[in-house]
Amino acid sequence: MPEAAFALRQAQVFLSDLTGSPDSHDEQRRLISTLHALDHASRLAETVGGGFDFGAVRGGQDDVRAGQLCADAMRSAASVAGEVAVLIAESPHATPASHGADAATGAAAVSTEEALAELERCAMELGELRRTHHRATLGAVADGTLAADTAIVRVDTLRTLEALSHHAWRSSAHLVGRGE
Fold this sequence. Notes:
Elements: H1 2-17, H2 25-48, H3 61-90, H4 96-99, H5 106-142, H6 148-175
């Protein structure tokens, strides 16, 4: 992921070098959305670069479910990224936010919409799972059925999986202009 972090940093530098304000409200909205996407993508890269051990997802049923939800979210994020790459390759001056509605076929827009909906579902479900998992896992330490160090790893793992999914969702949504 160091390459991704480097590329994101280059994008930040490029945007920082821009001078003047956008000419239209639509351009201003696209710039803001791009900055939001970049911020979330940077947080995603930072989270991945933090030395997370994906092999730690082998605890109970909730731990495994969290791992699956995060994997589903990453597949959906990759789908959105692929659609954006196609749009850019087809028209280097188009933006994902404005081009999606103008696509020659409805397939790309539907695919992106489905991927965004799946990303949101996974992120929301992981958020709820993290809250219930946190209480249950720490409760297992209190009743003596789980060691504290194991509980901390499980809680941290779920928090990281939730952060990955959340930032992938928000970055993707902003990237295609649907991040309100």
